[in-house]
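Complex record, two chains
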Amino acid sequence: MHLDQATSEQLREQESLLREKYTQFQQENLNLDLTRGKPNTAQLDLSNELDGILNDNYVDKTGTDLRNYGGIDGIAEAKALFAKVIGLEPEDMLIGGNGSLPLMYFCAHTALHHGLRGSDSAWSKESTAIKFLAPVPGYDRHFAACEHLGIELIPVDMDGDGPDMDKVEAMVKADADIKGIWCVPRFSNPTGVVYSDETVSRIAKLGNIAGPNFVVFWDNAYAVHAFEEAAPELANIMDCCRAEGTEDNILLFGSTSKITLAGAGVAFLGGSSTNITSLKKNLGYSTIGPDKINQLRHVKFIKDAANLSAHMAKHAKIIKPRFDAVLEKLQDSLGHANMGAWTKPQGGYFVSFDSLPGLAREIVKLASDVGVKLTPAGATFPYGKDPADKNIRLAPTFPSVREIEKAMDVFVVCVQLASIRQKLGE
Amino acid sequence: MHLDQATSEQLREQESLLREKYTQFQQENLNLDLTRGKPNTAQLDLSNELDGILNDNYVDKTGTDLRNYGGIDGIAEAKALFAKVIGLEPEDMLIGGNGSLPLMYFCAHTALHHGLRGSDSAWSKESTAIKFLAPVPGYDRHFAACEHLGIELIPVDMDGDGPDMDKVEAMVKADADIKGIWCVPRFSNPTGVVYSDETVSRIAKLGNIAGPNFVVFWDNAYAVHAFEEAAPELANIMDCCRAEGTEDNILLFGSTSKITLAGAGVAFLGGSSTNITSLKKNLGYSTIGPDKINQLRHVKFIKDAANLSAHMAKHAKIIKPRFDAVLEKLQDSLGHANMGAWTKPQGGYFVSFDSLPGLAREIVKLASDVGVKLTPAGATFPYGKDPADKNIRLAPTFPSVREIEKAMDVFVVCVQLASIRQKLGE
């Protein structure tokens, strides 16, 4: 049923049918969850070899015993391996602990309070009202980190090529307090967008527009997380930055959280030698160093780029059917209904659904009331405020295909119910 | 030779003999290092079983797969195990990553900028000149963390029972900007002092003198690191605090860095439920959670308190001969010389040596010039400034007994040379 081509009578009939379906769901005592971008058990099992991989061999190439203290920036072997994942050289890398969020928070905190190029470059010296651009919909943890640091978030729309760069450029030109932008450039959270070459190139130029202390936070969390080889590649932003002379205006992040184990992987940070030197120095005040043994495990397990590709293909084989299930259900029930739009990602962990304006909260509530948990409406926007109340993030990796099909049956009924009721003015 | 009982002639003769010995050392091309409190290879080998201990079993008692996201405060099994190490209940615990320094930095940062009891309790709201008491000699990383946070350090002398509590109490009474004190209460770094019961009891009362936002940073890094069972025990400060109603004025820290692997262990934090709740909330902005898999490894490896004791006895057996070597060399050459004093620790990682005033720098330089690296003079004081220029931290765990003996032969000659030259007015 097309929402705008149906008569009021037809809509009312349909609403009645949907209500019946919904009542049936109520009686099923469902307990389904599409909220978190968590790998499923089969994916986690792919990395069980990590435990026991060391064989009492803890010495690196230089003869250093990695079980002991030393080395704030991680082991050389991990730098070489993960540099390839985000398109850098080993000397551009700092290898951290089990998550990229702590690295991102640390970098923002350092730039804010201590400065990446000496204390005079600290953002807090320039202004007490520092701001970041937040492409929306985006990742709630990025936004929360900024909020906690007292950094204001200014939403800017995402389109199919990445952030709306006309707006981004205009905003950083107009407001010197804007010191950063959050980017998830490949298979963006939650839209799945891969930034176009032009967008990457324009982002690389931002440092020349915004000034020396502006930093692009390039969270390449899904760098190698394509569903198939044909998925679009991401241009190498550091190459672009070096060509523009803006290599100090970017920090790159990544992790193995969705390569090996979520929460027990290895995170990494890349940047210019100026930035890495400064960050290493600052990092030394709050840590003795990262867990080098877990880094060594990861190096021995992942081995090299070819082996990593083969490993990621196994992940893709496990999760693609889950995305297919989401997309088929959406297409079948809403494909010609004008009740919303959604992304068709070629990698990453999410499908982004936009309902008709003003309905996201209602849809999430309807689903929740019959046992299907969705990410709270608004979560993909700073301060939890989606001005159009339309975006819903669907995370289908964790449940089984059957659970996803069931959850999506519920979801589309909720979308239809909310849309029709809105149309009917109820 | 007793410095004050020798004639000038005898001193000059002795200086000449020592200079010859020193010249011999110069020709030996020594490369010895007593700088870092690092475990040695035999100690690290005690924990090799950690790798491969999981046997594809990643599920905790509640059925949760620990390989996945979830749980900001660590796994229940680790809470139960490590609570015993620092004398708390499991619900008082937060289990972190691979180091206690990040936890301590995070707690100080949170108390400073966000407050442990809501934003109104943030130290930065009360004053722009927050201060911490630094018992000296102490641990340089504690001091550096404060410096980086913009917290001023006020030295206060250590004696054989812990910090000079008369002074501590007077200082916190007189200055409301003093918001914390660093304590390494058992086998203190570097003095090896175990705080007396009276000192513990008086520290537990500080919250009632200093006010609600004062925090004792109780870094119990060497809680189970005695050389023999007869070593003095530490009173349970949380029991004292609860009796005084000051349980919100203390945070306790510890780690397995010197139980299992340095840099690849597990760190933990303990405190009142008010503090733990607040810290958990704040922690969620900068991390998704700790490495639960490494926590699980540690739980399976350490098992329980009895097994931990047996494990620590193995460490003691390895390192006690190293401390004995240091103490014998000091006693043999300086025992009746009036050229300095030193501690005789019953646990921990250090011997603290006090030269005659004004000689520490000179002694460290003399030793360094013949290839024996010592911790820089002043390192045990805030801002690297030892006002009496006398304290030198000796860290004998890492080198072999033979290397230690050689290094100490050099050390005592340097002490004697510097002392005699000072006496001679050279």
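Note: Chain A has two domains: 8-43+309-423, 58-303.
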